[in-house]
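--- STAGE predict ---
source: upstream dedup step, 1 unique chain passed
mode: sequence only
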Amino acid sequence: MGFNCGIVGLPNVGKSTLFNALTVGSADAENYPFCTIEPNVGRVSVPDRRLYEIATLAGSEAVVPTSLEFIDIAGLVRGASSGEGLGNQFLAQIREVDAIVHVVRCFDGSEITHTHGAVDPVSDAQVVEMELMLADLESLQRRREALAKKRRTGDKAVHALLEVIGMAEALLADGKPARSLLLGGPKALLLSSLELLSSKPVMYVCNVDESAIRNGNSYSVALRTHADRQDAACVVASARIESEISTIGDVGEQSAFLESLGLTESGLARVVNAGYSLLGLITFFTAGPKEARAWTLSRGSSAVTAAAKVHSDFARGFIRAETISYKDYASLGGEIGSRGAGRLRQEGRDYVVKDGDVILFRFNI
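--- STAGE serialize ---
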């Protein structure tokens, strides 16, 4: 699987509508707060035209894209960390995700109730962010109290963890998320072990109306500026438009519909691309007569790590990775043409896999 992300935001910002559209699911989406009570989970195939081109050239019987999981979490309100609304039970669900997709209302209109009475995307974003940070402070306080007795033993590991807790608490008290705390080495691992909500990478989705789908609007511009200050990703999408796209089954008709709106890709594609960039992920491919498959890998990973993604035996008995770049594979007619042109490379276990590499693993066990 590519990665999983929790969809959060205030009530009535279009979270569940967007979730349904992206996953072609059936999550309730109504005009009242707390419509989503239990978290909805949906898995979607990651759109990647390269995979289908590779499959055609390889004559593959099956095409297996990598996938992305969305978790639609109930709307958060001011005071959620202390039990307001549906309480902080849903905050715990955020701890399980790789990234947070924060949907923010960036459209006017009185037909959909706004929780705070007026559209202000930056203020709305800050409400949710503050609840995550307050929940983190409470979590750190409990952790500190649990370590208090052990501190007197002189345990170096306890002292190191308490030091990181203190650094995180100071940052959060200053109104900055834990992801702003830049640590390296052992301290970074200790920070990760705390599983802080505000340490998760964040992608803002500006939910706009159709008129702003191409270039955004003043609301989305303000939110993007806020995202830049937060070192977060930001994409513009329309939950309503995505809902329409999800009802079109034919790929060609989808493309024509997008083109009529002046778009080259769907909101799902924009979310996926931003998510891969945010999390430092790449895609590599395997292809043969039986299937062509896409695999997700952390940027900077070695060939033997990629082999383990495919099968543990590939890594255990790794010999070499026969590698062709996607560009060469597509332009030279696949494996045979690339091999004939001398573009197939024999790479060792320490080779750093590149995005788009088409790899055949040779192994022996």
